[in-house]
Specification:
By secondary structure, the chain is of the alpha+beta class. It has a single domain, classed as minor pseudopilin epsh domain (minor pseudopilin epsh fold). The chain has three helices and ten strands; from the N terminus they run H-H-E-E-E-E-H-E-E-E-E-E-E. The protein starts with a helix and ends with a strand.
């Protein structure tokens, strides 16, 4: 009778080696999940910053057509990593935070870098009363597509402004 009890006791649980192997598998699977979540968060931050920038460009364009005045956006690349919405050359009031200027720092708000701005060789875009994009308020229209690049640890998005129509889209 004693041998039967001993046999049952040995098969009733896991050995230390089996438990260690299960823990290793769990750790490896957790590592893969962490890496995927981390890259998704990085891409999500860049997407959010690009969406906000595109919305603010469209806001300036809508103000120009609705109010009937020149509105624009001035972009400052790394290390400032910010942009501001302008009426003529003055920063407008932020409708989301009344009493403050409409200045968005993408590094502070999204932990994203404003890596590059190529808007006709400059860093400003203005919209006339018809919503058309211009480099200056004296009539120099945007001749080639304007490109604004946002990055975070290898994840990149570009916000593009089409010449003529002023169509703003994210790529």
């Amino acid at each position: 009778m004693k041998p039967q009890r001993l046999a049952r006791r040995q098969s009733a649980g896991f050995t230390l080696i089996e438990s260690a192997m299960i823990m290793m598998v769990i750790v490896i699977l957790s590592l893969f999940v962490f890496i995927n979540i981390n890259s998704s968060l990085r891409a999500n931050r860049v997407n959010s910053a690009a969406t906000k920038l595109a919305a603010d460009l469209r806001y300036a364009q809508t103000l120009a057509t609705g109010v009937g005045a020149w509105y624009g956006v001035s972009l400052e690349v790394d290390p400032l990593n910010q942009y501001s919405v302008l009426n003529n050359a003055s920063v407008i009031e932020n409708p989301g935070n009344l009493g403050t200027g409409f200045i968005v720092n993408v590094k502070n708000d999204y932990d994203v870098t404003l890596a590059g701005v190529n808007i006709g060789g400059g860093n400003k875009i203005y919209f006339n009363v018809f919503g058309a994009p211009f480099l200056t308020q004296n009539g120099t229209s945007l001749a080639a597509e304007g490109v604004i690049t946002l990055t975070k640890d290898g994840a990149t998005k570009t916000v593009r402004i089409a010449p003529g129509s002023g169509r703003i889209h994210i790529q």
